[in-house]
Write a structure and sequence with these properties.
By secondary structure, this protein is mostly helical. Helices cover about 75% and strands about 0% of the residues.
Length: about 200
């Protein structure tokens, strides 16, 4: 069972009205919203492919924008942690090294996901018509679904523990919720893209 008293005590350290905290929440929520809206718009209109001259160039451009936005998100996340108090009793070596280990595992999932998917596979290439020949099932996809998202979440969780930051833990929960919502929208849409691909192959 969840220790409600401990949760109340934990989040009693967090000022959710702090400007930095609000900016961090908005940056976390904005990123998946942005790339889903832009990618679906591209899938429907092919406007970016026309502007950049090819689907690959357009995908690389969107990927670069997403990377910049992720850097902004991480900066906002870190600044929000710094502006709020640490949790008493957590500022110990075991907490720091536990967080470091969790971040290392998250980094492993993120990097291995990127290597397995490639740039276009990572950054929504299928929405640009750049489809993979078959579903990737190698590590880390053999361990869990959406390892890029959950690896990123683990990095933020580890970072929060390393800083003994209740604000960081709450923001990590926002990251997890944002990615969960993104998966609910992206999963069925991506499956439909590949379903249409299979229909096209069979009709030939």
């Amino acid at each position: 069972q969840v220790d409600v008293a401990a949760m109340v005590r934990l989040f009693g350290y967090v000022d959710v009205t702090d400007t930095g905290f609000i900016v961090a929440v908005l940056s976390i929520a904005f990123n998946p919203f942005f790339w889903n809206v832009v990618a679906r718009w591209e899938h429907k209109t092919r406007a970016l492919s026309q502007v950049f001259g090819s689907p690959h160039a357009a995908c690389y451009c969107l990927g670069a924008v997403i990377l910049v936005l992720n850097c902004v998100r991480s900066h906002c996340f870190t600044e929000a942690m710094k502006s709020q108090p640490k949790l008493e009793g957590w500022d110990y070596h075991w907490t720091y090294y536990s967080g470091l280990a969790i971040s290392a595992v998250g980094t492993l999932f993120v990097i291995s996901s990127f290597l397995a998917l490639g740039f276009t596979g990572t950054f929504l290439g299928d929405y640009f018509g750049i489809l993979m020949e078959e579903k990737v099932t190698s590590f880390p996809f053999s361990v869990l679904d959406n390892p890029m998202y959950w690896g990123s979440t683990a990095i933020y969780l580890g970072w929060s523990l390393m800083h003994a930051s209740p604000a960081g833990l709450l923001l990590t929960a926002v990251v997890a919720i944002s990615y969960t919502i993104a998966v609910l929208y992206e999963g069925p849409f991506t499956e439909e893209i590949y379903r249409q691909k299979q229909k096209g192959v069979k009709s030939k």
